[in-house]
Amino acid sequence: MSTILHIDSSVRAIDNPNPNHNSISKNVALKFINTWRQMRHTDEYIYRDVGMNPPGFITQEWIGAVFTPDEKRTSAQKEILVLSDLLIAEVAKADIIVISTPMYNYGMPAQLKSWFDQVVRINKTFDFDLARGDFPLRPLLSGKVLVTVTSSGEFGFEKGGVRESSSHLQPHLRTLSKYLGVETIYEIAAEYQEFADERHQTSVSNANNRAHSLATELANSASEASSAQCADHV
């Protein structure tokens, strides 16, 4: 059995009275999730909408608690870290992480950044050792797959695209993902939202088709891996 952790981060809902206000990234991610769960309905599914229910920003007190050894933390410090501990436990348990996010001002929403700040934590998801020279950080988790679903008002943010230098969303996700234990990344993107033309419709359609086909591919791979493990124990 696999565990999927699904993180949505748009401030928009999936379904609104005005369909033009529906979150594109959430709907494409839902296509992936629904396809997966139809094929592997017994898998564990963990969902968080950090766009609608954002985790708190880290504070000086939060940092103080993190850098206090476990055995010396006060009750107040332990309370400060309760949410962080829970979010990290969800990441640690997940085999596949699905993150959907719109591009806000050419980067990730503050709510998603806050989630990452709560999760990427020393001695929990990475450790630090100056003996490693100029690269002292090392991830503590491994073996996970990340599927990112992004939406943007403009276009051409891919490598070699006309707005490549303005893209601070996907590169940021790639950089941070290694501290979630991610080893393989699949990217799905919907573009042209502000143009509201045929290109946008085509892009959203392609993103939904990609979500369906990728979920099918990965679910089949997970089933084959499970069957192989069962055969090894016969």
Distance between the termini: 17 Å
Label the overall shape: globular
What is the CATH fold-level name? Rossmann fold
Sheet with the most strands, sense and barrel status: 5 strands, parallel
Oligomer: single chain
CATH class: Alpha Beta
Mean pLDDT across all amino acids: 95
Q: How many alpha or pi helices?
A: 7
Tell me the strand order in the biggest sheet: 2-1-3-6-7
Helix/strand class: alpha/beta
Number of individual domains: 1
Strand content: 15-25%
Radius of gyration: 19 Å
CATH superfamily: Flavodoxin domain
- Report the helical percentage: 40-55%
Architecture per CATH nomenclature, i.e. the level-2 architecture: 3-Layer(aba) Sandwich
| Uncertain spans | none
Order of helices and strands: EHEHHHEHEEEHEH
Number of strands: 7
Report on the structure:
There is one protein chain. The two termini are 17 Å apart. The chain has one domain (3-232): Rossmann fold (3-Layer(aba) Sandwich), CATH 3.40.50. It contains 7 helices and 7 strands. It has 234 residues and is an alpha/beta fold. A hairpin with an 8-residue loop joins strand 4 and strand 5 (137-139). Helix 1 (24-39) packs parallel to helix 7.
Which properties best describe this structure?
single chain; 234 residues; alpha/beta; Rossmann fold; 5-stranded parallel beta sheet; two-stranded antiparallel sheet; 40% helix; oxidoreductase; Flavodoxin_fold; flavoprotein; FMN dependent NADH:quinone oxidoreductase; NAD
